[in-house]
Specification:
By secondary structure, this protein is α+β, with helices and mostly antiparallel strands. It has one domain. The protein contains four helices and six strands, in the order H-E-E-E-E-H-H-E-E-H. It has a four-stranded mixed beta sheet, covered by helices on one side. The protein has a two-stranded antiparallel sheet with strand order 1-2. The two termini are about 25 Å apart. Bound molecules: zinc ion (ZN). The site of zinc ion has 6 residues, from loops.
């Protein structure tokens, strides 16, 4: 992730840090701080977590991060998710059914801020079970893959 995007998340107060001190070598009492930016979940499966896509790498102007609010970021993330849903890659975090862009089973992108920062997708009807399914998730135990590159300009 580019430092500029990390800095944006830091400004918004959305970076999680985890302090890891290494006890193996007492002479070099090194303290490591792991930093984790918010993730995107294409489903609840461990393989389906993605690093947050960088708006600038998707065609936003270089200076846009300075002006972006969290609402803007939500909108950008939603447009990325819509591409993933259209490509058949996304599932409801609760019921694990594939999502589609049809009207029949509407879904929503939710930004979870409890214990971890993560955008995920869930059917409207499944939302009430979301808290149950989020329990026990630890952000530093999830390994995130780089996000797919969708062409967002055609939306
Ligand atoms: Zn569902």
């Amino acid at each position: 992730m580019r430092n500029e995007l990390l800095a944006w998340f830091a400004r918004e107060g959305l970076l999680l840090t985890d302090v890891v001190s290494s006890a193996q070598d007492p002479e070099h009492d090194e303290i490591k701080v792991a930093v984790r930016a918010p993730l995107l979940a294409l489903s609840r499966a461990n393989d389906d977590f993605r690093e947050c896509p960088d708006p600038v790498l998707f065609g936003y102007p270089e200076s846009s991060l300075e002006m972006m609010t969290l609402d803007d970021m939500n909108e950008f993330v939603l447009s990325w998710f819509e591409r993933a849903v259209a490509a058949g890659m996304a599932r409801c975090f609760v019921c694990n059914q594939p999502l589609d862009m049809g009207e029949e089973k509407p879904w929503d992108a939710v930004f979870v801020t409890h214990d971890m920062y993560c955008w995920l997708l869930v059917h409207f009807d499944c939302k009430r079970y979301l808290n149950r399914d989020l329990k026990g998730r630890h952000p530093f135990e999830v390994s995130a893959h780089p996000p797919e590159f969708f062409d967002l300009r055609l939306m």
